[in-house]
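Why does residue order matter? Because the sequence determines the fold. Keep that principle in mind as you read this record.
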Amino acid sequence: MSADTPSTPTAGSLHEQTVVVIGGSSGIGLEVARLARGRGATVIITGRDQGRLSQAAHDVDAKSSTAFDAYDHDALRAFLDGLPDAIDHVFVAAGSPSYARLSDIDPATAAEAFGRPLALMVALSQLAAPRMQTRGTLIFMSGTGARRPAPGMTMIGAAIAATTAAAANLALEIAPARINLIAAGFVDTPLSARLLGDKIEERRDELRRTLPVRRVTQATDVASLALHLMENTAITGSVFDIDGGQQLVPPSSY
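Structure:
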């Protein structure tokens, strides 16, 4: 089999590969770590909360875990410097959306919210991609918020548009390492529950009624897509939507 011949993913297709999950203590990041470990990968996870991270590391049998803020460039560099000489994949689930209407936006806060995801993407392209095995990949979480403008979505939409454009260009610069984005709609995670509070069940019921798939997207759905992007070495510079068909439904329907 030549180096350009695709292989068929198997249950152990990540065997002897190292997967780093930034933001892996809960939700989507934790599910990526769990599935990757199940497919034979060595897993390294990070998060900001040491207690939650320690529990997650135990649950997924992670090789190691480190607590730090991924947006702290010095801490990120120190973490990457402490990794093995070669890594295979980095999945990034760090951060949370910044919903705010114009009247509530502070310009300095807006600049930070807009710039941090892009800065993290650039930093990992500079610091992690050169250490990757051939055709390893950087995978970042994005969203579908830039597709349908609405009050309160200014900072989210701007950040998504910036990182989408950056990924396409960085794919050319970090090759043969790869970079891809997963654009998610609503995903039923602890973060979603915290953001919606006592309205979470109402939102779940609404989506079950209106989405074409008639169910709510789960963290495991996104994690399965992430692992596919790790295994399929023909994909780079791309954005993959996973929203249960939410973009197909008129806004008045939900």
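Residues 18-241 form a domain with the Rossmann fold fold (CATH 3.40.50.720).
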